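tool=predict chain=A
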Amino acid sequence: MDPMASVQSGSTHARLLQLLATGDAPRKPDNLPCFAERLSRLFGLGDTMSLDAATAFRSRQPGMNQEAVFEQLTKELSNIRRALRRKIGRYGEEVEASDSVTAETYLNAWLVLQRKVAASSRQLRDKVRKAMKEHNQDLARLAELDSVFDHTMASYTSQCFSHISKVLEQRFHSLQPSSDSPPKTGHTPDDWLHRYCEDAQNLLLAELDVRLEPVLGLLEACHNEVNHSP
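tool=predict ok
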């Protein structure tokens, strides 16, 4: 089986947007400007100069075939995704049972996992870019471009993903029954909490795939370069 295929996740963006929509996230207006215009708003003068320098980037060192490294990094991507999915699937189990169930307790546990997802994807992306710069000029230039885009959009990306915890807090309170309301017929008192944990897991799984997609794209470019190079 192609290891690249094992890390693809389908309509990840659609799933994340759907979960955020059901979690009372603010709706965006339908008359948004085109993608290019929205992207240009994130680039200041300094970022534009960095992008221009990246398009003309040339490595000072001769390249060495990194095919074996690319294969290893592809396996590492698959392993990291699998391990993080297991951790996310156990979300909620580490929270000690008590009579007082609070949103803060569950949000703190979720934020620990979110930081782990962000750190793992960032570290792997850096490793892939390093290998690309050591392969040849074309991949070195692509790695430099990716680095500029990554740096420029870091603040915006962080802001977007930080909003998810606010959505989850709203979701927690909307599902949590009042202390004086009896459980619905056919439901146990903890059903709402299981539902919340499932929603929280799904949001983090979607975020995981979104964060790993740039790494997957870089690795696909690496494999294409290796397979089509004379």
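The helical segments are 12-22, 35-40, 45-55, 67-89, 103-133, 137-175, 191-228. The mean pLDDT is 82.
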